[in-house]
Amino acid sequence: MITHAVIFSPIGQSSRSDQIIQRLANAIISGLLAANEQLPNEADLARMMGVSHITIREALNTLRAKGLIYTARGRNGGSFVAESIAKEAFPSDSFRSISTEYLSDLGEWHCAIFCHASRLATERMTAKDLAALTGFVEALEQSASPEIRCQSDMRCLLTIAANSQSARIANQELMVQAEWAALVTMLYQSDEFHLQIVGFYRHLLAAFEQRDSEQAVRIAGNMVNHFTSRLIEVKFSIHTT
């Protein structure tokens, strides 16, 4: 799966253990690694991420101490993603303490990343890539709960970022999702909002198919701005209650 290829791609040279911790934590918090999903074993992780077994073990121990993963023993044992991480990572009460400036800045950061990713993906995406993304959009459309809708959305976003064929852009998207996902889950309680986002993705798919990079950038920007505006509206509504 392309999203997992991004999550487990090789790590840079500096602070490797910290980078692994951050990347896996971001993937868990955003829901890209599902609750109770088994991680690759230490040997496979070391090979995939280009680090030593000791570095992987150190990172997994830290993630375990943070409660993000757990270990099961026995024949089918290994490291697994802990449950209910996204809700615990950003409880609803914390929404009261964040500022509209924070939400606006987060939206601008995400818009910059996603718009450029969409431009590059338009130029570099293959027919097979487009078919895979279409399947993820259909999964988003069919999802019912806010949590599953958010996870499906994050998978679509990261798939587009991965199709930019820029490792830095894909990893930046993964980073922003750690903050973004816990917030937008609240928005997906609305069926109307859910259908609006599916509509944005449908238009984006059409732009990709037509190789219209300018249209793709406009749609990507409008979609992220729609998210940001709704988050600020929710912030104001909570503040006044």
Automatic annotation (TrEMBL):
Key words of the record: DNA-binding, Transcription, Transcription regulation
By its UniProt entry, which SUPFAM superfamilies does this protein fall under?
GntR ligand-binding domain-like (SSF48008), Winged helix' DNA-binding domain (SSF46785)
Domain of life, per UniProt, equals Bacteria
Q: What InterPro entries does this protein's entry cite?
A: GntR_C, TF_FadR/GntR_C, Tscrpt_reg_HTH_GntR, WH-like_DNA-bd_sf, WH_DNA-bd_sf
Q: Name one GO molecular function term.
A: DNA-binding transcription factor activity
Give every HTH gntR-type domain span.
14-84
Record-linked Gene3D superfamilies: GntR ligand-binding domain-like (1.20.120.530), Winged helix-like DNA-binding domain superfamily/Winged helix DNA-binding domain (1.10.10.10)
**UniProt-listed PANTHER family:** GNTR FAMILY REGULATORY PROTEIN, TRANSCRIPTIONAL REGULATOR, GNTR FAMILY
This one is known as GntR family transcriptional regulator
The taxonomy runs: Bacteria, Pseudomonadati, Pseudomonadota, Gammaproteobacteria, Enterobacterales
